[in-house]
Amino acid sequence: MEIRFTKMHGLGNDFIVIDTRVEGAGLRSQKLEELSKKLCHRRFGIGADQMLLLYPSETADFRMRIFNADGSEVEMCGNGIRCFAKYIWDRKLSDKDVLMIETIAGIIKPAKSRKNSDELLVKVDMGEPIFEPEKIPVNISQQSEEKIIDYPLKINDREFKITCVSMGNPHAVIFLNDDISGFSVSDYGQVIENHPIFPKKANVEFVNVNNRNEVSMRVWERGSGETMACGTGASAAGVAAMLKGLTEKKVTVHLSGGDLLIEWAEDKHVYMTGPAVETFEGKIKV
Predict the structure, then answer these.
(1) 77 catalytically annotated
(2) CATH 3.10.310.10 fits 2-126+275-285, yes or no
(3) Over the stretch 159-179, which tens digit does the pLDDT of each residue have?
(4) Residue 27 CB: number of other CB atoms within 10 A?
(5) What are the φ and ψ backbone dihedral angles of 51, each rounded to 5 degrees?
(6) pTM of whole model > 0.70?
(7) For 44-57, what is each residue's pLDDT tens digit?
(8) Is residue 40 flagged as an active site residue?
(9) Which residue among 40, 83, 164, 230 is the active-site one?
(10) Selected catalytic residue, list 40, 77, 83, 164
(11) 42, 82, 160, 253: which could form a disulfide with 122 (CB 3.0–4.6 Å)?
(12) Topology of domain 151-268, CATH
């Protein structure tokens, strides 16, 4: 049996997009967790950080399900939803400039922004950041705290100060004085992701503050490892920097794959703007 797919990326964070309405019969015979592991494998499959599945929705324009390279299903992906929206617009599945996409994290609204050379920029209303420990979720002894800011977490030989935010999925943001370009993200990211205080694991962002308007970030994504970019991670890092008074309310986040613009607006919503790119289409036997 063959499944048709589209390969896309947002700043190098790459995805396999499949329209289940077209490939429904074939997908119904598959265990999606195993399918994602197979398709995302970079040696024996197509290769990607995540698999995105497009479904019809009763409450929105479309529904998106997201599976990591390790087969786990996750709530939300910022780079993924930009690619998802571009997929819909390019195929004229909707003529709306602002889409309503149903996710596990709720209804997310990507909107057409402006063209940057040949790239469409997509602006996404990421909703309000969540700080309550039980909602992120984070299990710490200080459950009375409204926000987790600079919480000390000892990992191996080093103590980190973590600031925790949910952008529909859990994030631990760490501001470093070390230059993140030479920092061992893999050594620490995986341990923090799986730390017992995170019952649903966590995405981990390592951040340098460059100035009041720019930060640089590397990210260890839950279930995928280090990726070139993470939209929810950039949003979480921007919010954490703003919360700590390190930056203004609008920042450019520099990632390995490129830049995202993050704004924490007066309506308390976070807005993320960045590109989405289609690389190729294909068929794969499963």
Answers:
(1) yes
(2) yes
(3) 999 999 999 999 999 999 999
(4) 19
(5) -110, 130
(6) yes
(7) 999 999 999 999 99
(8) no
(9) 230
(10) 77
(11) 82
(12) Diaminopimelate Epimerase; Chain A, domain 1 (3.10.310)
